[in-house]
Amino acid sequence: MTNLIVSSWIPVRSTSGIEQISFQELLISDAPYHLALPRDDMELATLQLLVSLVQVVAQPPSAAALRQRAQSPMSEAEYGELIEGYADSFDLQHSSKPFMQVTDPKAKETTPIQKLFIGLPEGNNHAFFNDPGEITLVCGSCAAIALFNQASNAPGFSGKHKAGLRGGGKLNTFLSGKDLRETLWLNVLHSGAAKELLPDADNDVLCWESPIAAGERITAQKIGLRRGLFWQPLRLKLEATELDAPVSCGHCGLNTETAYSGFWCEADFKFEVQGLWPHPHSPRCWNIKKQEREKERYLSFNQLTPGWTQLNQYALSYETAKDGNVRAPVIDQYEDVFLDQSHDRMVLLVGGYANKQAAILERRHELFSMPMEWQSNKGFLERAINAAIAVKTALRGRAYYFGKETGAQIHEQAERTYYQQTESLVHELLKSFSNRKEGRLVAESFLDQCKGLARDIFEELSRPYQHSPEGLKQYAIDKRSLNSGLRKIEL
Asked: What gap in Å lies between CA 282 and CA 111, rounded to an integer?
């Protein structure tokens, strides 16, 4: 049996090694636990699941109460009071309301459990070093995490299966603390912030306790925080097997006596959500046309470009004449409740999937450490990142034209190399803001480094083609054009 409220199911690394602990142990202990799973995306899904669970069961009534929770473990008595009424709500095998499932999906056959593990080759996914059928049996812990991750973060299985409330492949931003317990509380909204986020919500019942109706038309702003965090767009039921002897879980490797081999999943279950639900862990962006917002959407990774290119969208809220962005609500709350009061820096944890329709192209996991002083340098950070992207565009453009005239296909390699070598420069930029240097000087130094890098990359990649008179002539033309373009890029 796996009950998220009472069972030992949370995979952690502690001073004694890797083990599974209970939700209670995590919240009442000051031990420095850290998540421990073979895949970073499953660790991030576990974090998201735990944050959502804390939000439902133990939402703090005020900012002061939230700070206190982050600083000190709760007592066993406090935990007992908080979980009253929830003991049956998060049971993976409950007879009438199993966690994130229905009891009667209309399906003719089971689907292998590996289909729930995003990116493994059961269906339309690119394989990440895995063979079909690699995961055949999993423990209740991994089944619950995979079930939540599929509902919250994955593209739909197919055109006949809906994706989550945000659609598929949307990124999550979290605050990272010194250990797992603190990290959870840094990402939980207190009651006032939750009410401000969803003032019109009137349905806050968990989806498996009040399932979505076929054909239902749902207004996003009416969905409560609990219902939205644990949104389940699919009608499915896990297939559990009680074993005579323990077996090793195909995902985490720990022994289990209850194993899950597959699930029953209903196809063509249709309903409609109108509008965007303001997910607390998700940035949103939009375009501006004729001074009006359009195409508002949740932020996704830009295919295979590095995470720093979207750093402004993770860390800032802004609007220009062309577009706009609002960062995740938990980031706003962190600045108001924690930064400069109990914490001297903001460590952003960004993760999700780069996807193309139903195909997962890449798992993504990024970490950005923002010093306290960055608050007074937000404008310079925004301009520095935008300028670094402009340098990349100038480099790729001149490399493309050089290749067009000489046959040298170097523009894509130039872009890849620039991205690889600027990663460390971006982290150094963030660190430099904490050295109490003038923000403009820090940003200008960063931009000069990016420009120098672009010149070096163009020089190196074009060198093999400079030996012919035509190649040397074109090199001189494009080098001059590149330098001219780079001079125009300013903060």
From this structure: 30
Residues 395-454 have pLDDT tens digits of 999 999 999 999 999 999 999 999 999 999 999 999 888 766 688 999 999 999 999 999
Residues 4-21: tens digit of each pLDDT: 999 999 999 988 889 999
Torsional sign, CA 211, 212, 218, 219: positive
Cα end-to-end span (Å), the chain = 58
The CA distance from 327 to 312, in Å, is 9
Three-class secondary structure of residue 486 per DSSP: helix
Which residues, in sequence order, are bridge partners of residue 274? 219
DSSP H or E stretch at residue 260? strand 255-265
- How far apart CA 426 and CA 367 sit, in angstroms, is 12
- The model's pLDDT over 286-332, given as tens digits with 9 standing for 90+, comes to 998 888 888 889 999 876 788 999 999 999 998 888 899 999 999 99
According to DSSP H, which parts of 2-129 are helical?
Answer: 23-28, 40-58, 63-71, 76-82
Burial 303-313 (b: 16+ CB within 10 A, else e): eeebbbbbbbb
Q: Give 326's DSSP letter.
A: E
Give the integer Cα–Cα distance in Å for 455 and 478: 11
Please answer whether residues 318 and 11 qualify as being in contact, where contact means their C-beta atoms are separated by less than 8 angstroms. Answer: no
CA distance 310 to 365: 13
Distance CA 359, CA 122 (A): 11
Contacts of residue 247, Cβ cutoff 8 Å, sequence gap at least 6: 137, 255, 256, 259
Is residue 12 within 8 Å of 20, Cβ to Cβ?
yes
Question: Exposed, middle or buried by CB within 10 Å (0-12, 13-18, 19+), for 437?
Answer: middle
CA distance linking residue 61 with residue 151, whole number of Å: 28
Give the contacts of 390 (CB within 8 A, at least 6 positions apart). 489
d(C-alpha 189, C-alpha 22), whole Å: 22
- Residues 299 and 284: beta-carbon distance below 8 Å: yes
What residue type is assigned to position 434 of the chain?
A: S
Q: Looking at 140-243, list the stretches that DSSP marks H as alpha helix, in order from N- to C-terminal side.
A: 140-153, 180-186, 191-197, 225-229
∠ CA 170-231-187 to the nearest 5 degrees? 65
Query: b or e along 223-234 (b: 16 or more beta carbons within 10 Å of the residue's beta carbon)?
Result: bbbbbbbbbbbb
β strands within 279-412, DSSP E: 284-289, 292-298, 318-319, 323-326, 345-356, 359-371
